[in-house]
Design a protein that fits this description.
With 1209 residues, this protein is of the alpha+beta class. It contains 38 helices and 33 strands. The longest helix is centred in the C-terminal third of the chain and has 41 residues, at 903-943. The radius of gyration is 38 Å and the shape is elongated. The two termini are 69 Å apart. Residues 1-9, 20-28, 469-498, 768-772 and 1199-1209 have low confidence and may be disordered.
């Protein structure tokens, strides 16, 4: 005890063989002999003031994920706005409008541009401000820092400096990359959870240097100094090279002494550490990339349409200019009344080509209404409102954490509806890192009556199929027995689940519960099974004051589940000392449990390479036992001839458990003789304390000497608990046609579980320790051969239900991502139903994401919850962060944030589908209305001898885009629904309209452009025909230009608003109000504008009241022209719905005629048709289980009359 502090007396390093080794007493490793580039960092421990001046002044611990800062916002935001080609055009037009050849005043050109650009920049600033707030939440976290004289006090993370000594307490994140100095354990051991960095669920063991262990209390740091020389900042999470110069000695440092930012302290009361890397120098931030500026593909395609319209604009401007030159050159001299020889360069018959050039500029400005200036700002407004609806969606609100969905950027809303591939992290994103003990096999007998989620769903689906597809006569002939059995499976499980749940234990079987195992045929084997569960682990029990029992701090959730299971079976692990484990065993003959002591002589811990764990224990009778658990393939090959009694039955059970989606381990044991153990232990101690590069290989060889001739006891099956709703979500996404890749830092065995039920293709690199060029080439050649063989195997597969899961680890992936292999790897991956990349670094996640994005050319979405996912989230077209219990790094780097993975289903299938169709229809409509408007100007100018005269009043033109047609199109972009949210979820195949780009392909775009061209012709020429030489006023006068122009504008307003009404399929009072309100606004404006003084209203003075309203022709023309304009669209949509309906047309008709209520079988049939066939996800496993059950049932009931046929799978 030091300073009144209670110390954890257990020296944890004695438990570990492979993970935590110190040099033997008297031996000390030599310092790392490094120098030169890449190893220049110097850190003065406990002297942060020395790091405030160059050359050892390092970056602060402040982190930022924003796109802008105060200095860069204006230039970067302006660049973002003016890389939009339309904005660039209007800027040029606004500059030219100050000259006298402009047809419009400069303010009428500049004001809309300033409004559009200003609003867009304000939106960007608001979204970046939200990112800044998220950053500050992390930057303002507090940590205890040494302030001097042995006193520690709280300090925000952002104010940490290199050299600071910090104290981090249990379950807190490390604020920077630290050198571990000491911990609450006497031997400087601490446990670190790196799930937020690499996705691995098992805890990592870190150890401090022996020389710094005395620094174990606040006061001991009063005079502490030292110098660290180490590598420069780099992104490699798994390496570190450095030396500590302390107390006139130099000690080597390695990764086992380094605590990385955003990893978490577990199972350790506290640690002391020295800050080595801060802020963006930390390894986790080095793995990130600069926040990218993402643009949606629709927006990029929209730029192409604008280029086409620009080409059209230049073309008609050239035609207009050419016509003007001809008129000026050939006819202007004869028009004496126009005073052609006045000094004016605009109309100069002596220099017609110069006048034509100026007129071309005039025409470019005049016809600029072909380019919709309000398109961008309308889209910005619509996307912000769409994002608001996403944020406010109650179905994506997590009640447990009080976290809503958050659209952190609204630029990519429509991309949500076009995703082709999802790249997901596993741990914390798909799984909740909780294992439930569900079934077991002991002595060849299967125990555990509860069904897994896969089995329950399969039984339910079979019952539904039988109910829906088997006729009544078939039921009467005996097949109803099958349905009764299946229903019983489901209902009995549901009834049993009403019991209060025990975390980590979902087992139910009275045969071995409550001491009944003594009545089973092999109670001695069952006893061994329970003891292996309670002894073979490295966990620590902690007394739970509320329950009076124990909770377990285990390295992995599997271990925790086994200990909970052992406790429920009556074997409660209750205490661990330096050399013993104590278990309270419930003896049926006694009411009180008996506490037994087992001496732990050796522990051979689990590694991903060994795939097993063993303990050598001595019971109270002195019997030596080796207890082992591990992967079945590893255990079975180590069984003795006499230990294979239960191998056949256990193998069958393991297969069944695998098909039920469970994770399995085999359990075995061996009795040891004292002499044999003593000899082996001497060898083992030598290997354990040896120094050298081959130490692990020697340890493995020695371990193999004792881990042999095992006797099989049984197997365990635990359910890797997916997060709530994840199976159904993956199911729905797969049915929607989305491909799912899983990129995890977790170990291979854990990752393979995702691919259960599929034929697995594992691509692995050859084991080679040499780094020579020829050996690298040999590895690559071998990988290439594996890829080629796997591709051939998939092509030759004849089973239509076969699904392949491609599994590859990080080491192999490093080769597969090289230029000469990556395309072959990608082609193989595309042919597989599921792709699982395990043990991958954050950088590799980003590289895989880039490969998929660039290689397929399709839209990718990356989703994750940890700092290790930041790279792929930023690299993908769309990044989604899970705002769960871990750090906020993934959320801060994301475009969208949700609280749980299951909300991704609604985000994509509902909001993504809606947003894509809304934006696509909105853009198409925008081009339609602007072409219909802009081309009427061209026709009139040709009609008026290319004079540059506009047929419309300036105020009309200003109002057209800003007021009279803007709000209806915004309502289309915000409220339009082709089908309801429930229908989107019931018919997931509707989502494929987005990835196939059915609503924004060139066929549809040119269709809308053609519709605009047709409408412009009808509006102009019909009005000219109606009014040409026809009496208009009651006095017999013909219509003047203002009357004709206003009538044409009225027809235009009616036509475009009626067109958008026909385009919509979902109406609320808001749409009606905005559409018909826009039409009414035009008449109110015309009335009010006409009442103003002629100084302001000019030719429109009293136009409606005195000229237009009394003239029947005005109303006839409006009605006839409007009907003629919308007629082609009505014919097209009617023909399409009748003869070539799209999926949503059929659903709309079914819902309109209430067929879903009147004919439920038809509705069910349509729903089943609207699912993409999938070989991954929960449904695929259920279908496989159904095929298996049907085979069994068909065989069992082969006596059923032949006319009864089981429904096809």
């Amino acid at each position: 005890m030091a300073g009144g502090r209670i110390r954890a007396r257990l020296r944890r390093s004695n438990l570990y063989t492979f993970a935590c080794i110190r040099p033997h007493d008297g031996e000390r490793e030599e310092p790392h002999p490094f120098q030169g580039p890449g190893f220049s960092r110097i850190v003065y421990c406990n002297e942060p003031i020395r790091h405030t001046k160059t050359p050892i002044k390092y970056c602060s611990n402040y982190i930022s994920t924003t796109k802008y800062n105060i200095i860069t916002f204006l230039p970067k935001a302006i660049f973002e706005q003016f890389r939009r080609v339309a904005n660039l055009y209007f800027l040029l037009a606004a500059c030219l409008s100050v000259f006298k050849f402009s047809p419009f005043s400069y303010w009428s050109m500049l004001a809309p541009l300033a409004f559009v650009v200003g609003l867009s920049m304000a939106k960007e600033a608001l979204e970046d401000w939200r990112r800044f707030i998220q950053d500050m939440k992390v930057n303002m976290r507090k940590v205890m820092v040494h302030k001097g004289d042995g006193a520690f006090g709280p300090k925000p993370w952002m104010k940490l400096r290199v050299g600071d000594v910090v104290k981090v307490k249990k379950d807190k994140f490390f604020p920077a990359d630290l050198l571990l100095v000491s911990s609450s354990y006497e031997d400087g051991i601490c446990y670190v959870e790196t799930m937020n960095l690499d996705g691995e669920t098992n805890l990592k063991v870190k150890r401090a240097l022996e020389v710094t262990l005395p620094l174990d209390d606040d006061t001991t740091f009063k005079d502490f100094t030292g110098k660290i020389s180490c590598e420069d900042p780099n992104p490699n999470l798994y390496t570190f090279v450095g030396n500590l110069d302390y107390d006139r000695q130099v000690y080597p440092l390695d990764p086992s002494q380094i605590l990385l930012r955003d990893s978490k302290l577990r199972n350790t009361a506290y640690v002391y550490g020295v800050v080595i890397f801060t802020g963006h120098d930390t390894k986790v931030m080095q793995n990130g990339t600069q926040s990218p500026s993402k643009r949606s593909r629709i927006e990029k395609q929209m730029d192409k349409i604008i280029y086409i319209l620009f080409s059209l604009l230049i073309l008609i401007s050239l035609i207009s200019s050419f016509g003007f030159v001809m008129k000026t050159w050939l006819q202007m001299p004869d028009w004496w009344y126009m005073q052609p020889y006045n000094k004016s360069t605009l109309y100069d018959p002596t220099h017609p080509f110069w006048s034509g050039l100026l007129h071309w500029v005039t025409a470019l400005i005049l016809y600029g209404y072909l380019i919709p200036i309000s398109l961008y700002v309308s889209i910005e407004v619509v996307k912000v409102l769409q994002a608001t609806f996403i944020n406010k969606d109650i179905h994506m609100y997590d009640e447990e954490t009080g976290t809503p969905a958050q659209a952190r950027t609204s630029n990519l809303n429509e991309e949500l509806g076009q995703v082709d591939t999802i790249l997901s992290d596993k741990t914390g994103t798909l799984t909740c890192n909780q294992m439930d003990f569900l079934k077991c096999s002991i002595a060849g007998m299967a125990y555990g009556t509860r069904a897994s989620e896969v089995e329950i769903a399969a039984a339910r689906q079979m019952a539904l199929n039988l109910d829906g597809e088997v006729s009544e006569s078939a039921h009467e002939s005996g097949v109803h027995v099958l349905e009764t059995e299946l229903e019983a499976v489901v209902t009995c499980k549901e009834e049993k689940y009403q019991k209060p749940p025990i975390k980590g234990f979902s087992f139910e079987d009275s045969r071995i519960m409550h001491g009944n195992w003594l009545k089973e045929p092999n109670p001695d084997v069952i006893l061994l099974f329970f003891r292996i569960l309670s002894l073979c682990h490295t966990a620590i029990p902690e007394a739970n004051e509320e329950t009076g029992g124990f909770t377990y701090e285990a390295e992995s959730p599997d271990e925790g589940a086994f200990l909970v299971a052992a406790r429920e079976f009556g074997f409660e692990f209750c205490k661990r000392t330096q050399s013993s484990v104590f278990v309270r065993e419930r003896d049926p003959s006694s009411k009180e449990p008996i506490e037994r002591e087992y001496k732990i002589l050796n522990l051979l811990d689990f590694t991903s390479k060994r795939k097993r764990m063993s303990v050598i224990a001595q019971d109270e009778d002195g019997q030596l036992l080796l207890l082992c658990k591990g992967a079945d393939s590893i255990i079975f090959e180590r069984l003795s001839k006499n230990g294979r009694t239960y191998e056949e039955a256990t193998t069958k059970h393991l297969k069944d458990y695998g098909e039920a989606g469970l994770r399995t381990l085999a359990l075995a044991y061996r009795k040891l003789e004292e002499a044999e153990y003593s000899t082996w232990n001497n060898e083992f101690i030598k290997a354990k304390t040896s120094i050298g590069g081959d130490r692990e290989a020697v340890l493995e060889r020695v371990s193999n000497l004792i881990e042999k001739d095992l006797i099989l006891v049984g197997a365990t099956a635990v359910e890797d608990k997916l997060q709530k709703g994840v199976p159904q979500c993956i199911d729905k996404l797969a049915q929607a046609g989305l491909k799912i890749w899983v990129l995890t830092g977790d170990k291979l065995e854990t990752a393979i579980n995702i691919g259960l039920g599929m034929k697995q293709i594992c691509i692995t690199a050859l084991n080679t320790d040499k780094l020579a060029q020829d050996s690298k080439q040999a590895v690559k050649d071998n990988i290439m051969m594996q890829i080629t063989n796997a591709s051939q195997m998939i092509k030759l597969e004849k089973d239509p239900h076969a699904a392949f899961a491609l599994i590859i680890d990080g080491k192999t992936l490093a080769y597969a991502l090289e230029d000469d292999l990556k395309h072959q790897f990608l082609n193989l991956a595309i042919d597989c139903a599921s792709v699982i990349c395990c043990r991958v670094s954050p950088k590799q996640k980003a590289l895989v994401t880039r490969l998929v994005k660039q290689g397929t050319g399709k839209i990718t979405l990356a989703i994750g919850d940890g700092a290790n996912d930041v790279g792929m989230i930023q690299e993908a077209d769309i990044g989604v962060g899970i705002s769960g219990v871990e750090g906020m790094q993934a959320v801060m780097a994301s475009d969208f944030a949700i609280a749980q993975f299951r909300f991704l289903e609604r985000l994509l299938v509902v909001h993504g589908h809606w947003c894509y169709k809304r934006i696509a229809q909105m853009i198409c409509y925008f081009f339609y209305k602007n072409i219909a408007f802009g081309l009427t100007l061209f026709y009139f100018e040709a009609f008026a001898s290319f004079s540059g005269q506009s047929v419309y009043d300036d105020s009309y033109m200003l109002l057209f885009n800003v007021v009279l047609t803007s709000l209806p199109v915004i309502s289309l972009g915000v409220f339009e629904q082709d089908v309801s949210a429930e229908i989107c979820l019931q018919f997931p195949a509707l989502y494929q309209q987005g990835p196939k780009n059915l609503f924004f392909d060139w066929y549809r775009i040119f269709g809308w452009i053609g519709n605009g061209l047709y409408s412009s012709i009808m509006i102009f020429f019909l009005n000219i025909i109606f009014f040409y030489n026809e009496p208009f006023r009651s006095g017999g006068q013909t219509a003047d230009m203002s009357a004709v122009g206003t009538t044409m504008f009225t027809c235009l307003i009616w036509a475009v608003n009626c067109q958008i009404a026909l385009t919509m399929t979902h109406f609320t009072w808001i749409q009606h109000f905005l559409i018909w309100g826009s039409v009414a606004t035009w008449y109110l404006f015309l009335l009010g504008y006409g009442m103003m003084s002629p100084v302001y209203s000019t030719n429109a003075f009293q136009l409606l009241v005195e000229a237009l309203a009394p003239a029947p022709m005005y109303w006839y023309a409006t009605l006839l022209v409007t009907f003629t304009c919308i007629l082609p669209y009505m014919v097209h949509i009617s023909f399409q719905r009748c003869f070539h309906p799209m999926d949503h047309h059929i659903i709309q008709e079914i819902k309109y005629y209430k067929k879903d209520v009147k004919d439920s079988h038809m509705w069910t049939r349509e729903r089943s048709k609207a699912r993409q066939e999938t070989k991954i996800g929960f449904t695929a496993r259920v279908d496989a289980k159904i095929r298996q059950l049907r085979g069994r049932l068909t065989k069992k009931y082969s006596s059923v009359p032949s006319q009864v046929v089981m429904p096809p799978s």
